[in-house]
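Lab notebook page, bench 4
Experiment: in silico fold of construct C2
Operator: M.H.
Input chain length: 420 residues
Purpose: comparison with the prior construct
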Amino acid sequence: MSLSGQDGTNVKTKRAVTAATGPAGRYLDLVSARIRAIRADLPQLTAMGEAMAAPMLAGGRFFVPAIAKFWPSEISGRAGGFMGMNHDPHQKPSKKNDVAYIALPRPGAWNPREDAALMRLMRSKAQVFVNGRPEELEAMGTSCRVAAFTGGAPADAGLYGTESRRPLAELRPFDQYVRGWMALGEMIGACTRHGRMPAIYMSVWLEGALARNASLVEHHNLSEPWTAPFLHRDVYIPPLAPGYCGGSFLDIAEGHLGTLQGQVPLLAKAGRWMAEARRNGRRVWVVAVGHSYPKILEIPDKGDYPVEWGYSFSDLRKAIPRDLADGDVAVHMGYAPVNVPVIERLLKRGVRLVHTSPYGRPATLTDHKNLLWLDLPWRPADASVDVPGYGVRILPMSSTCHTMAYFALMAEMAEAMGWT
């Protein structure tokens, strides 16, 4: 088994597992190392944010092309994210003040030179910013025209693997989420230092959000679709210091990591449940309620991935298949308040449930042999970073928390299955 250190290099380690750390603990230690590496790169992400802000302040348009298919889902329509992104299918990034912010697919199964959409983007006049590592576009040679990279973890960094998937508990998605949002946070900060504030979505899980968001849409009867401006017309926010937005997001993520590190025994038990179900021919069903799972995993339609993924439903009645039964395992990382009666019915059917919600465990949810409650306390409504003087928080945290928890579970499952 190989571990990846802060610098992305792999070092061989013994396979001895202790009850105090175990596979989940080791994976979370690697996440801690990634956080240190990201923190060291904060000045680079601040510079990237400033570079993205400049063309938008000059009247540019903001695009998120689907080079990596998960990225538009992750960035678009998010609580704490931009309202004024360009979603018009008839418009493409083409002008010198257009910003195209892309993420890169998994290396190995993807050749950038054969990606027609990427090649068209590189030939355009738009300013291209990449959530990824420069090495992942080396094959493009001189045709690679990128304004800035976020950097990130190598694709082979992580723990365990199967014949069709290595690493199984990977680190690259963690970096993609954290660095990707931190760069956008630093872009917001740069805009405030120039006297402007991007229009940010208020989570629809909050009272009054629908009316507030609708009030920013420029509605008329001359054309469609109707959109919000990228920048507020006349809203002033005190300038945010360089590094504030990205650094605050990283601090919050590190706090959630600490919460997970305190639950390693629970993660270990959940992983054993998952392995037992797979060995016995039962189902392991996973749902991470948010915007981009399981797209980021790029699971082939006919691939032998160790678990099944369901659609991102908060409602357990829709999220968990009705035919899950005794011996099956469901992992549901939720978004909404907890529905205790539905959980009780699942447990009565014999389903082993690993569940979490940012709203916390209600007092009416009693202990049960088939229930593991995972404390994953990102803020209800997702957006996490306060902007003094602005009524809406920025930068959603759910995907980052899901990533840490999910891959810690996969590390435990892999160890229990004997995968190396």
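Observations: The radius of gyration is 22 Å. The chain has eleven helices and 15 strands.
Next step: discuss at group meeting.
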